[in-house]
């Protein structure tokens, strides 16, 4: 994946996380999805701030040296 493609995908993910949902049911479903997956990443602003500085090198390092 090229750097441009990576940045485009990253912007898309951040945009999806920061999207303000139109209906309460959508927001509720998003929260329940986090609960069921045990992610608990409810604060979209924090998640977006954590993703913003990442580049492809970070992802490659994570694959090479996964957290234990």
Write structural notes for this entry:
With 68 residues, this protein is mainly alpha-helical. The protein has one domain. Helix content is 69%, strand content 0%. The chain has 4 helices and no strands. The protein has helices at residues 3-18, 24-37, 44-51, 56-64. Helix 1 runs antiparallel to helix 3. The two termini are 26 Å apart. The relative contact order is 0.14. The model has no long low-confidence stretch (mean pLDDT 82).
Record the SSE blueprint.
Layout: H1 3-18, H2 24-37, H3 44-51, H4 56-64
Summary tags:
68 residues; mainly alpha; 4 helices; globular
Explain briefly what this protein structure is.
The protein has 68 residues and is an all-alpha fold. It has four helices and no strands.
The helix content is 55-70%
- Please, what is the average pLDDT? 82
Roughly what fraction of the amino acids lie in strands? under 5%
Number of strands: 0
Q: State the end-to-end CA separation.
A: 26 Å
N to C succession of SSEs: HHHH
Low-confidence stretches: none
Number of domains: 1
């Amino acid at each position: 994946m090229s750097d441009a493609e990576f940045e485009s995908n990253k912007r898309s993910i951040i945009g999806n996380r920061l999207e303000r949902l139109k209906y309460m049911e959508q927001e509720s479903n998003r929260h329940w999805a986090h609960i069921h997956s045990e992610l608990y990443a409810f604060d979209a602003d924090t998640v977006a701030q954590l993703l913003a500085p990442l580049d492809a090198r970070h992802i490659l390092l994570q694959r090479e040296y996964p957290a234990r």
